[in-house]
Amino acid sequence: MEGVNSSSSISDLDDLARLLDRPRVNIERKRSFDERSFSEMGIFDNVNSPGGWETPVSSARNSFEPHPMVAEAWDALRRSLVYFRGQPVGTIAAYDHASEEVLNYDQVFVRDFVPSALAFLMNGEPDIVKNFLLKTIQIQGREKRIDRFKLGEGAMPASFKVIHDPIKETDSINADFGESAIGRVAPVDSGFWWIILLRAYTKSTGDTSLAETSECQKGMRLILSLCLSEGFDTFPTLLCADGCSMVDRRMGVYGYPIEIQALFFMALRSAMSMLKHDAEGKEFMERIVKRLHALSFHMRSYFWLDFQQLNDIYRYKTEEYSHTAVNKFNVIPDSIPEWVFDFMPLRGGYFIGNVSPARMDFRWFALGNCVAILASLATPEQSASIMDLIEERWEELVGEMPVKICHPAIESHEWRIVTGCDPKNTRWSYHNGGSWPVLLWLLTAACIKTGRPQIARRAIDLAEARLLKDGWPEYYDGKSGRFIGKQARKFQTWSIAGYLVAKMLLEDPSHLGMISLEEDKQTKPVIKRSYSWT
Ligand code: GLC
């Protein structure tokens, strides 16, 4: 691995940055999309036009006649807008008046705002996204403490609330960096989503001036300092506490969760394309290139699971010492759960939930796998395999409502131990095997990138049969996602925005460029996975 790392230089960095900074519409679609399936659907006709509902669509099948739900969704999304001194700066998590308990659903969550932001960008309304990016970078600058402990400077908030004082007629912001969150965990994903969104804004508008401001450059460097700092790590993956991302409760995702690793990878690559080539920027770019090499090798080798790999692990020897060990993390084959043998199709594969010493969490997590495709953390072959798996295991991973957050659910004794008896995360509910409509946009984006739009179409059809009628729930429960979630909010903004983004992506696939990165030759593994294990 050292050999790989030392091969990077600043001139490589320039090439890489140029590669990542290509204009939105042209190349990305050509290389990734199955043009045949798109032209059959009649949607390449408008690929060079700006996004938006005014865009004329020439489709023989009229498959993009605006669905009546689309207008309803836009109305609901606009109702969720949050203003600071008269300017829109985000969207509230849920606009659910029927719910007695507001908790923190009246706040703007950074991760929840991402699909809203993409919807606004795709609709040609970038200002709110710019306001949000600037507001959150200001909040990042605050000192943050949990009890007497001071958090790292770069930490981004999980959420913030605008407090309006009607007497003084002033607005102020109250942010939560984990100090109020249930479980007191700081969100590791917020900073990554922020960087990813800054790139989306830049790609979609062509306006590089925001990313170039000293505030944004500094904001990026602070986030990067936090996650690139050296410590006792022996792996390039990022060590996390349970509940530090979308799954923000104890769910056994501590360690090296796929969701964070995929977002980390995507944020590093996004930052590469936006950091200035000044002395400070170049120093970070060098560190990023090294980390990307090691991270992609590690993920593609050790997190990847397909039939062959499962069989290899099943036959592992244990207690191997030294560099020649095949079973590097000393995973005991008896720890492989029964379900995975039935679940794993001959065709297909995925990045498993977590890998650490003597521990492989074989659960499927949708967000991490979709982001891995979008960021090109997955090789083209792996991306295609993930889509194969989704097709082969449709009942389990999509069922009646897209998309299952993870599979399978944890039950009984394991649920007691792993979740700490969490009544909200009972089997097939919420984070424990629940179905989250917000994930529809990620699935759709991954489908488009891998040239499989028909899979997205099928998932969107399922959502359209119920989402509006059910009042845009936050999540669904049950093995196949048939029931509105036990404690699900209604009018959950990211369910609404996720649907809109999925629709717009399918209508105009050129939007994909703002949220997708092409494979970067420099992070290509030197050794292919199949050889690395033999
Ligand atoms: C829940 C979800 C979290 C989301 C928040 C606001 O806590 O687990 O991912 O950001 O609600 O919708």
Automatic annotation (TrEMBL):
<comment type="similarity">
    <text>Belongs to the glycosyl hydrolase 100 family.</text>
</comment>
<dbReference type="Pfam" id="PF12899">
    <property type="entry name" value="Glyco_hydro_100"/>
</dbReference>
<dbReference type="GO" id="GO:0004575">
    <property type="term" value="F:sucrose alpha-glucosidase activity"/>
</dbReference>
<protein>
    <recommendedName>
        <fullName>Alkaline/neutral invertase</fullName>
        <ecNumber>3.2.1.26</ecNumber>
    </recommendedName>
</protein>
<keyword id="KW-0326">Glycosidase</keyword>
<dbReference type="GO" id="GO:0033926">
    <property type="term" value="F:endo-alpha-N-acetylgalactosaminidase activity"/>
</dbReference>
<dbReference type="GO" id="GO:0005987">
    <property type="term" value="P:sucrose catabolic process"/>
</dbReference>
<dbReference type="InterPro" id="IPR024746">
    <property type="entry name" value="Glyco_hydro_100"/>
</dbReference>
<comment type="function">
    <text>Invertase that cleaves sucrose into glucose and fructose.</text>
</comment>
<keyword id="KW-0119">Carbohydrate metabolism</keyword>
<keyword id="KW-0378">Hydrolase</keyword>
